[in-house]
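Example 3.2
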Amino acid sequence: MRAADASVRVPAAPGVHAWYHQNQPVYVGMSTNLNQRLVETHLSTRASMYFSAFRRNVAERLGFGAPRDIKSKVRVLSAKELDAVTEWIRDCQFSWIECASAEEAKVLEASLKREYKPPLTKR
């Protein structure tokens, strides 16, 4: 699914999500609520990036500062920089795998990180 087309179709269930930019995997994460994580956090246009490592890591990739500085607000992004992060993410595609439990999602996430080594996944 293209990030720009995200809607309420994302389930409010535990699972793993993957983000792709130019058809290459760039980020893998897990959540206890996929809808909240994908739609409300990663696709958010709010100035605060505190809850989204993915948005902070995109900002770093675009040259706007270190994720830890953005999270701690040592580095505050300008409106133009925030727009660039949002635009980069909206140009991505994402997918998800719904899991029966958060524990199952953690195991799957670790496996996918090892296999694909997505560059914007830091931990």
